[in-house]
Amino acid sequence: MLIVWTGLGLLVVPLLMGGGIVGAVVLEGLVGPIGATVALGIGTVLLVVVGRVMNRAYNEHTLYGIPIQHWAWIQGFFAVFSVVLLLVG
């Protein structure tokens, strides 16, 4: 498996995976089944904030050519998708 990043773009992996998993485990116990969705929402906001701070002047911190703050769109999609699954189920 090939991972391509520039600058500190590799931070996307722990922010996406680690934040979502840890947040889901912690929040699942506090707020119930909606905990994973809340964790995804928090992770999305975190990606936007960290990405914008790190890439103020130029998009120097990327993963697979995508700047850190734009990975929030991908995670945001999964947050919305999890809300839909909760409403359907």
Question: Helical stretch count?
Answer: 3
Q: Structural class from helices and strands?
A: mainly alpha
Radius of gyration: 14 Å
Q: Would you list the SSEs in sequence order as H and E? A: EHHEEH
Low-pLDDT runs of 5+ residues are none
How many beta-strand elements? 3
What does it look like?
The protein has 89 residues and is mostly helical. It has one domain. Helix content is 65%, strand content 7%. It contains 3 helices and 3 strands; from the N terminus they run βααββα. The chain has a 3-stranded antiparallel sheet, with no helix packed on it. The model has no long low-confidence stretch (mean pLDDT 85).
Strand-helix topology:
Layout: E1 5-6, H1 12-31, H2 35-54, E2 62-63, E3 66-67, H3 71-88
Antiparallel strand pairs: 1-2, 2-3
Question: Care to give the gist of this entry?
Answer:
The chain contains 3 helices and 3 strands.
Jot down its keywords.
3-stranded antiparallel beta sheet; transmembrane; 65% helix; mainly alpha; elongated; 89 residues; transmembrane helix; 3 strands
